[in-house]
């Protein structure tokens, strides 16, 4: 899969502003970014559901604009919301998809059984899919997408809404797919998911690639420690943020949970932060350094200051 200089506008919204990325055959690329970053737009273009305004994209060697039918033949897409028919059994769901893809009844039945087994759905195969748990439904959806043996699979936020146990089960299944040589493009908002599944990660924010590398490289890029600042009054967090920015520092995230976070990428950052906060007219109730979590690393990568937006 190769994407070069992809742009896409929806009215005034610049959803993609020149995206480049590449997924090598047999690997998993994690496409990471916050809400509205442009992930779904990239996947929709690569699925031939949307045309780019400019730039090129090819999938399995086929251009998405000039050879959409060949692209569609090579891929399968698993969305955020299960597409299974809730009224019929898991077995029936897979059988119907297999028949729609042109398999004869006997081959369709065999393929359905094979996938039910592979995805640990054998025991509930005869029950209506509407009664399945979230994790079971997601597994059925994944199984349905694999019936035609696609070489390339797009997974859109595969574990959203699943509990930790079901999420791990799903991750194991997804890992198994690449052992069989499949190429995967995975979109997610969670660094943890990208690290669990993807060899390479591309971070997009506001329609641009802001970082690319292995999950480990991205985590190390923000340096060793993270500063956490709390203030007595919530409104003071904004004052603290402005004071840090004015001192040339780069606080990250929206402070939604009452904590302002900032990566400490240089030795003098901590002293500079102390000075900036001491000079602001606020009551600081917490000031501590921590090893960053993966999500904090991600936040730091996607926190482009507002004044640099859309330049
Ligand atoms: N059909 C559309 N019409 C208008 N605006 C759109 C359309 N599709 C996407 N957008 C806008 O383009 C931007 C990128 O959206 P996109 O859905 O690609 O983001 P995303 O990274 O997938 O977000 P999420 O994680 O929330 O799914 C957003 O500002 C969105 O509102």
From TrEMBL:
Coiled coil (UniProt feature): none
Protein's cellular compartments: Cell membrane
Domain ABC transporter as annotated: residue spans: 1-231
InterPro entries: AAA+_ATPase (IPR003593), ABC_transporter-like_ATP-bd (IPR003439), ABC_transporter-like_CS (IPR017871), ABC_transporter_ATP-binding (IPR050763), DrrA (IPR005894), DrrA1/2-like_C (IPR025302), P-loop_NTPase (IPR027417)
Record SMART domains: AAA
Matches recorded under SUPFAM superfamilies: P-loop containing nucleoside triphosphate hydrolases (SSF52540)
Listed Pfam families: ABC_tran, DrrA1-3_C
Keywords for the protein's UniProt record, in alphabetical order: Antibiotic resistance, ATP-binding, Cell membrane, Membrane, Nucleotide-binding, Translocase, Transport
GO MF annotation, one: ATP binding
Membrane topology: Peripheral membrane protein
Protein family according to the UniProt entry: Belongs to the ABC transporter superfamily. Drug exporter-1 (DrugE1) (TC 3.A.1.105) family.
Protein name per UniProt: ATP-binding cassette domain-containing protein
Organism: Sphaerisporangium rhizosphaerae
């Amino acid at each position: 899969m190769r994407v070069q200089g992809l742009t896409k506008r929806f009215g005034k919204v610049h959803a993609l502003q020149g995206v480049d990325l590449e997924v090598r055959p047999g690997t998993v690329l994690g496409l990471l970014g916050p809400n509205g970053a442009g992930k779904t737009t990239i996947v929709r273009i690569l699925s031939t559901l949307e045309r780019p305004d400019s730039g090129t994209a090819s999938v399995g060697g086929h251009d998405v604009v000039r050879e959409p039918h060949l692209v569609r033949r090579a891929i399968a897409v698993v969305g955020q919301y299960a597409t299974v028919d809730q009224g019929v059994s898991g077995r029936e769901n897979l059988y119907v998809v297999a028949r729609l893809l042109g398999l004869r009844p006997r081959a369709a039945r065999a393929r359905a059984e094979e996938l039910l087994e592979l995805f640990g759905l054998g025991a509930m195969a005869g029950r209506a899919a509407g009664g399945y748990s979230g994790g079971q439904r997601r597994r059925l959806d994944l199984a349905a997408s694999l019936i035609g043996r696609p070489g390339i699979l797009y997974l859109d936020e595969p574990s959203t809404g699943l509990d930790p146990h079901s999420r791990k089960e799903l991750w194991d299944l997804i890992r198994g797919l690449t052992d069989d040589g499949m190429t995967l493009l995975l979109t997610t908002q969670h660094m943890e998911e990208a690290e669990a599944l993807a060899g390479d990660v591309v971070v997009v924010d506001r329609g641009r690639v802001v970082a690319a590398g292995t999950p480990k490289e991205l985590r190390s890029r923000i340096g060793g420690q993270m500063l956490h600042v709390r203030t007595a009054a919530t409104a003071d967090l904004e004052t603290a943020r402005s004071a840090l920015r004015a001192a040339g520092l780069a606080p990250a995230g929206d402070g939604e949970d009452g904590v302002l976070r900032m990566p400490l990428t240089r030795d003098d950052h901590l002293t500079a932060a102390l000075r900036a906060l001491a000079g602001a007219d606020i009551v600081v109730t917490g000031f501590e350094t921590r090893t960053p979590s993966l999500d904090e690393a991600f936040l730091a990568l996607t926190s482009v200051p507002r004044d640099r937006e859309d330049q």
